[in-house]
Amino acid sequence: RHTRSLCDWSSDVCSSDLTSKGGYVAETQLNTREDGTKTATLKVKIPVDEFDAFLSMVAQQGTVKAKSSTGEDITEKTSDTVQEQRSLTQQLAEARQRLQSARTRAQSKEASEEIRDLRVNIAEAEGRLELLKKLARLSDVTVTVEEKSKTPTKVGGFVDQIKDTAQAAEENFFVAAKL
């Protein structure tokens, strides 16, 4: 068990070698409840191959009371984006042919504008594809860690017992002194 505060721990996660491995902390939220208990909620993007190591590090911070994993299959989104990119590339080739075979200035202008628009669309599809590839390499983890609750000193505890014992001893002393 670590005695560090949650603020220290969450800072360590933020500045750990997570970023050097391609991960990052997407969101951090630190709270202090009315009873003084501190909680930290971190939303972290972790490389898939570092997933188990990260969860192990989190588990060292205290007792894991619940654990849940979910995932999103982005295969369809990736496939759709690849197909879109191929289709746009084909349309671009066709627009270039129309530009070469244009007989009027209007046809040439129309083909040039279509080529420009298709290039933008292809660049956007390539950007989406790169993002999807990055997402496929990262796991999303949301962790909420709670500090151990601070147990209040018990009324009638050890100190009160000593007072009671001292009072009884004093009374016994006075009784003995009278005799």
Total strand segments: 3
Query: Radius of gyration, Cα only, in angstroms?
Result: 33 Å
Strand content: 15-25%
Note the run of SSEs as H and E: HEEHHHEH
Provide the residue-averaged pLDDT. Answer: 78
* Shape descriptor: rod-shaped
Query: What share of residues is helical?
Result: 55-70%
Count every helix, treating DSSP H or I runs of 4 or more residues as helices.
5
Largest sheet: 3 strands, antiparallel
- Helix/strand structural class: alpha+beta
Distance between the termini: 58 Å
| Model regions low in confidence, pLDDT < 50 over at least 5 residues | none
Describe the strand arrangement of the main beta sheet, using strand numbers.
1-2-3
